[in-house]
Amino acid sequence: MFYIVRYIEDYCIKKVLAIFITNNHYHLKFNLDISYYLHEGEKMINTSSRYPQRVRNELRFRELTVLRVERISAGFQRIVLGGEALEGFSSRGFDDHTKVFFPEPGSLFVPPTVTDEGIVWGEGVRPASRDYTPLYDEERHELALDFFIHDGGVASTWAVNAREGDTLTIGGPRGSLVVPEDYAYQVYVCDESGMPALRRRLEALERLSVRPHVTALVSVQDAAYQDYLAHLDGFAIEWVVGHDEQAIDERLAQLTVPEADYFIWITGEGKVVKHLSRRFETEQFDPQRVRAAAYWHRKPA
């Protein structure tokens, strides 16, 4: 007796196909089975290549210099960063995040170092940090961060007061989720916190020769914030003003998602994301094609 084992790896699982051959009497059956399983295996490989893929990036902390400060919309302030430390920067996922550090004014912050044993922090109090979507322009060697301006936020306060020549320390992105751009059917749900990632994604989809079917549901507190995505053309962006969670949920219920070749992305406040994503946790949906991530959490009153 002998057997053939073929390993087929996809995004997170390994499947083993085994064909047992007992004697030459089954030679014909052996050939037929091999063809069948190889065909099935190729289908599985093709399917797995259509899944989002996680990739690792070199973890580095960079001290960058503010090159420009731009109020690009009613709700967002753009900080454009540069410097030699940007060399080697990589961000391959549209919803990547970089860790941005905000030390207290007048305090000395020494960025941590990365060793084989992990991250080594210097002495003193670690500064506040927040996660932001990197908008990297490789040709100009510039990194833009779009800050949503609101009252009381440490990051928002820094962005409003930032000036050319200021410094800012960032870390990462440590890894990227590379999502194929050519899924035929794509759904995006976010609030203000996810709009930079959505902008990055839609700008990439604009460049495709064949555009996918895209539905974007964007919840904003003020209708004026819609101007942040006004330059994008040809996408169905539906605005929900006032953060009406029920209205978003009802709209999601109306969607007819195909059985295959789709991608669903939901971000925003933690509890809202958890609630909205539940309808996509049934057997009807492939969990590898649904990405739900909390971008922030509402503090208890």
Description:
There is one protein chain. Helix content is 20%, strand content 36%. It has helices at residues 27-49, 154-161, 195-206, 245-254, 270-277, and strands spanning 2-9, 14-21, 53-56, 61-71, 76-82, 98-102, 113-115, 118-120, 128-132, 135-137, 142-148, 167-171, 175-178, 185-190, 213-220, 236-241, 262-269, 290-296. The chain folds into three domains: 2-49; 55-175, Elongation Factor Tu (Ef-tu), domain 3 (Beta Barrel); 181-296, Rossmann fold (3-Layer(aba) Sandwich). β7 (113-115) and β8 (118-120) form a beta hairpin. It has 301 residues and is of the alpha+beta class. The chain contains five helices and 18 strands. It holds the Pfam family SIP. Belongs to the SIP oxidoreductase family. One of its GO terms (molecular function) is oxidoreductase activity.
Quick tags:
single chain; 301 residues; Elongation Factor Tu (Ef-tu), domain 3; five-stranded parallel β-sheet; 18 strands; disordered N terminus
